[in-house]
Amino acid sequence: MKKRNSLVQGIIYLALFVVLIILVKTVDVAAIGPENTEIGLSHINQTVHEVFGINMFWYKLTEVFGILALLVVAIFAVMGLVQLIKRKSIAKVDREILCLGGVYAVTLVTYALFEKVVINYRPIIEEGAEHVEASFPSSHTMLIVTVFATLTFVIGEYVKADKLQGLIRIVSLVIVCLTIVGRLVCGVHWFTDILGGCLISLCFINLFDHFLRKAD
To answer: Which residues cross the membrane (predicted)?
Structure first.
């Protein structure tokens, strides 16, 4: 039952992500971005952006969280490589690491895809950039939410101390929450970019849970 539910939930979140893309491309589209770039659901997006404005503290904080997420990815990548070398078979690498590798790969592919298939552009031109950049979904939100949420699923296999396990889970969930809030209020994304990042992350997390359980 749990396997089926995780799979179904993952598909539902993917469907909602696709629906959001359709809405952003077709509903209440207006040229409210820099360089006259258009964004759907423009009244909602513009209102949220004007309420929060630009906040560099939250921008820098979420950048740090992004670095931490990449560090987590690197740690598990090294662990997987060491296991592969020692055990001489990818089939003998921990199923948790294989499933993490899969979700990390899908996240990377999704990031690359939406750099090429541009749904909308950022509400600001960032410092050092010559032109406005792709913005949907928020790649920081997608990366950090996916990495730290899936970390909570597997940490019990690699950290045996109950208190440390609990601390890592709490810190991971705090980082997830602060990232969602921070990327919204820092002003470098539209509201729908953050929503898109959350939806696709929830899809990845549920699919990760499904395949991890299936590998048991």
So the answer is: 12-32, 64-85, 97-114, 134-155, 167-184, 190-208
Q: Render pLDDT for 178-200 as a digit per residue (tens, 0 to 9).
A: 999 999 999 999 999 999 999 99
Its pTM surpasses 0.90: yes
| H, E, C per residue of the chain | CHHHHHHHHHHHHHHHHHHHHHHHHHCCCECCCHHHCCECCHHHHHHHHHHHCCCHHHHHHHHHHHHHHHHHHHHHHHHHHHHHHHHCCHHHCCHHHHHHHHHHHHHHHHHHHHHHCCCCECCCCCCCCCCCCECCCCHHHHHHHHHHHHHHHHHHHHCCCHHHHHHHHHHHHHHHHHHHHHHHHCCCCCHHHHHHHHHHHHHHHHHHHHHHHHCC
